[in-house]
Design goal:
The chain is an alpha/beta fold and 369 residues long. The protein has 11 helices and 15 strands. The structure holds pyridoxal-5'-phosphate. The site of pyridoxal-5'-phosphate (PLP) has 14 residues, from helix 3 and helix 4.
Length: 369
């Protein structure tokens, strides 16, 4: 019998996209142009009319966000101890100092109650991460930021379509950053975007993504020292196609998350995700926490049954290049350490159906260590 394979993620595109791609290739205009503009307009519409700036990846978006706000050497930036490496990498690449805060145990996002105690006179920004499509209590976080006049850059890489108190992720802070990597809610292959309500920041971001110029090759057009983080036209076409399905994709994920919640709730050796009240969770990832110390064994068992699964995000304070042998941060950030050392992400998304979800649930129940 052929082994079933249930992938963690697999993008699907419409038939009309193939036609648009063909026309684009025939026209031969591949560098950022009218399709990127249309994609940005569609994103802006989804996100309460904010300015939207498409870029080449979520990491590029985060990097540009810090650059545009002038965050650099000696500045302290507060971020959760648990996230994908890109969140802290961009802080370090900018020359700033990352200051970690623990996460909420089953919500995997920064614990806002612990933020105020790490603010110093060097703190310039907070970077909440909307991990796995969930969110922290953003109203409280914004109150803290306002009290201390801090910038807020939302790492909303995983959270297109998520909401806190009906306000979209990415629209609370100075800048929101999204990723369109294939594991995200919508994908452009690789890609990202920034959103902001500030017209000056929007203009700076547009310049910074394209060598510091908004167009024209005269010396005087290069107003900022920028990079090339532009999104190509091919990617924008993928994004336009995917964005039309955003609500459908989210609804499918929410239904599957409910099935996992129901199907796995009796297993006392598992801890299931528990978002805060007031959050519309989009379940970009569904992470279970394996409490019996057998996470790696479960991962290999599921893989042997054809179920793709991965450890979730990283424990940032001990990330390869940041790790200092003499310091152990695990006790300082226990929830982040637990999520990192015991978390397992299982398949979710429109590429699988309810039968597949049932298969994964049964495979987990079959596991006996
Ligand atoms: C929380 C978080 N931030 C940033 C990124 C970086 O996005 P990209 O892979 O598009 O560069 C990711 C991607 O996995 C992520 O999960």
């Amino acid at each position: 019998m052929v082994q079933k394979t249930i992938r963690l993620a697999k993008p699907e595109f419409s038939q009309t996209l193939y036609k648009s791609l063909q026309s684009l290739l025939e026209e031969g205009y591949l560098v950022q142009g009218k399709n990127v503009k249309s994609f940005e307009e569609a994103l802006s519409e989804c996100l309460n009319g904010t300015y939207a700036i498409a870029v080449s990846s979520g990491t590029a978006a985060l990097h540009l966000a810090l650059l545009s706000l002038g965050i650099g050497a000696g500045d302290e930036v507060i971020l959760p101890a648990y996230s994908f490496a890109a969140t802290v990498n961009v802080v370090r690449v900018s020359g700033a100092i990352p200051i970690f805060v623990d996460i909420e145990e089953r919500n995997f996002c920064i614990d806002v109650l612990k933020v105020e105690s790490v603010i110093t006179d060097k703190t310039v920004a907070i970077m909440p991460v909307h991990e796995f499509g969930s969110m922290t209590k953003m109203t409280t976080l914004m109150q803290i930021a306002n009290k201390y006049q801090l910038r807020v850059v939302e790492d909303a890489a995983c959270a297109l379509g998520s909401e806190y108190k009906e306000k979209p992720a990415g629209t609370f802070g100075d800048i929101g950053c999204f990723s369109f990597h294939p594991r995200k809610i919508i994908t452009t292959g690789e890609g990202g975007a920034l959103v902001t309500t500030d017209p000056q920041i929007a203009e700076d971001l547009r310049r910074l993504r394209s060598h510091g110029s908004l167009g024209g090759a005269n010396n005087e057009n290069f107003i900022l020292a920028g990079l090339n983080y532009r999104m190509p036209e091919i990617q924008a076409l993928l994004g336009i196609d995917q964005l039309k399905e955003l609500h459908h994709f989210i609804n499918v994920r929410k239904k599957q998350a409910a099935l996992y919640n129901e199907g796995l709730k009796q297993l006392e050796w598992l801890e299931l995700p528990l978002p805060n009240d007031d959050i519309k969770h989009t379940y970009q990832s569904y992470q279970i926490v394996v409490k019996n110390g057998k996470r790696d064994r479960l991962r290999e068992f599921l893989r042997s049954k054809g179920v793709e699964c991965n450890n979730g995000a990283q424990f940032l304070p001990e990330l390869g290049y940041l790790k200092r042998d003499e310091v152990c941060y695990r006790k300082q950030f226990p929830n982040a350490w637990k999520a990192y050392s015991q978390g397992l992400v299982i398949p979710i998304g429109h590429h699988i159906n309810e039968e597949d979800v049932a298969y994964v649930i049964n495979a987990i129940k079959e596991f006996n260590g």
